Amino acid sequence: MFWKFDLHTSSHLEALLDKEDVTLIELMDEEDVLQECKAQNRRLLLFLCQDQCMQELVRMITTEPPAGVEEIKRFKYPNIACELLTCDVGVINDKMGNEEPLLETLYSFLEQPSPLNPLLASFFSKTIGNLITRKTEQVLSFLRRKEGFLSLVLKHIDTSAMMDVLLRLISCVEPPPLRLETLTWLNEEKLAQRLVELIHPERDEERQSNASQTLCDIIRLSRDQANQLQEMSQPDPLLTVLESQECVEQLLQNMFSGETTESCIINGIQVLLTLLEIRRPVVDGVMDAQGFERSYTVNSTILLAIQPHLIHFHQLLLEPPKRNPMLTTLGVLEEPLGNTRLHVARLVASLLYTSSASHAVVAQELCRLNTMDLLLDLFFKYTWNNFLHLQVELCVAAILRPCAHEMRLQPGMGAATETPSEPPVTTENSAHNLMVTHLFQHCHLVQRILEAWEENDKIQSEGGMRRGYMGHLTRIANTVVHNLEKGPVHTQISSLITGLPEDYRGRWETFVDQDLSEANRRNTIDLIGTGNPRPSSEDDMESPFPKELTLQQAFSDYQIQQMTANFVDQFGFNDEEFTDHDDSIGATFDRIAEININIDAGQDSVSANTAVFEACSKERIQPFDDDEEDIWEEKEMNFATQAKSLSRVDCVGCSLYTATGWVADFGEVNSKAPAAGVGFSAWDTPDTQPAATEAEEKGWAKFTDFQPFCCSETGPRCSSPVDSELSASDSTKPNQNRKLLRHYLFSYSNLGTNYIALD
């Protein structure tokens, strides 16, 4: 029964709390201790908030557990202690934030020698981060009194949990005045400069990587909060320092001082790429007032600091750090591209996309170094490296398609954004025109495209593989054609292509009209297929139902068509037809009258379609035989009368009742069973013809072939008490009533016909 089971909802925790000598470990062994704590169990919170219990919880997350304990249970109690301290219960937060001895115990974790236990470091970071969020003023006041706080955090920066502590101080402090005060304190402690110093070839890779990631996160968080908190009268001090020319120069000097290492170069370029970010992807759906994603202005001092070191980055493209040969699916690559050259290509693309006032200086230096020509050489050399191909494509697109909206975001540009198609002549535009000329005349972009395309066609015609850069090469060619037709520099591109040698100019025109157009046609996806629909796979051609699969495929293609703005108009309705029917009552009929139902096709096409339609109709529609009897035709039913008491007979799966004065007449009995797989109808009409007909071949039951039971001399054996009395008193009917009546019940299924004989 239900009440036999123990459904008492109170936990075992209450029984433990009733004990006088209960210990913290005993409570932590209970599996529902966290649930009860989050539910703010009063008795449990009173026990946990005792001084000795809180000290023990903090000690668990800051002290290394004994080494002799089993590894699975070693960090069990520290984990539970961290969850109890960070379960966001006000009583525990107040106890931790207001009791300085507890904060001292927690702070002592930073004073331990390196390296820290990563798991305990995560417990410490989570606990101190929760206190920074919930008890901001108390915790910040405590940390600011600790002179060596930042030094200890940076000392353990090789542990990733320490990065979270710094980011909590920057992003989780409210309100804005207190946040600005905290940022000023961190800036006075020279946090940005000390992080930059950690990106140095002499530092270990883990420390460099975490320092670089911390700088990138600080830059992004500071820019996002600066956009959100427009009421801040003062700029972010940390961001101001990081964007300063002195700080960027210090970073570049560290990168190229002494023997360059790949780790230092990559981590330094990551910071530079973050500083050069002009827009961020929409992660949370936030856009600026102009409808673009979050956009940022690149400080000119960043480009001025990078420009003298462009020669070092160019040299890295020529002589990257040595790498061992790499085994790939296409063979051994003796000289891999490497992560260093890939990041340099990303840096060049970001520099070309900036529209700062100092962009001209960078553009001129890149043209002088002939960096784009070197990148194009690497583009065709590393045939299968699509990471590199994408960056080179972005470089070409940035040169041929200057972003007018990014220029608009720059202060003081003035009329530079009024007419994007014809920008005024400025220092920046002249430098940009220099890049366009350099790309076509010195880098020979058109000649490279034509030669690479023809070489690929030759390789494919000989049975070789299509080159891996062909997709990006197609997009580069389309970018050239698009900006040749329209764009800010279409006049200059047109004159440069006109100035090509006659041979290349003719080949380019042929290439655009034929090869490129054909490639674009193949790459275009038709959402709604035209003509005869094709089966989804070759297997469908061999299936017994190819036409059904074809229709399903066509319907699926129709369903996945793109919803466009004029879909409603194309579908046949618009909003005006649902507003006032009286004023536009004839609109629907007018639109129907406009429908063109004429079939414009040749005679051959019509006859071919007619033949296909008739063939499908013959497969699907089986014509009726005029000589076959209509089984649904209503016919007159004959009933014979006979004075007999009510009797009940089981006949062919149904109950036949005969009453005094009438009985159903079914004709003669035909014991012939129908063939397997042939059906019958219990409501068929009688037929007096004894010969077999088409209906028998089709499987229809003929009740006219059965002998009526009421007309037989013996009659059926019946269980009716009335009939039993009459049968017993009738002396003219001796033992014939015991004669067995055998008949068949036909049970039909899709797999065949089963015959059941009842005795």
Automatic annotation (TrEMBL):
User: A single GO molecular function, which one?
Assistant: protein phosphatase binding
Task: Quote the Pfam families the UniProt record gives.
Answer: SAPS (PF04499)
Disordered: region residues? 525-544, 714-734
An example Gene Ontology CC term for this record: cytosol
Record-stated family: Belongs to the SAPS family.
According to UniProt, the name of this protein is: Protein phosphatase 6 regulatory subunit 2
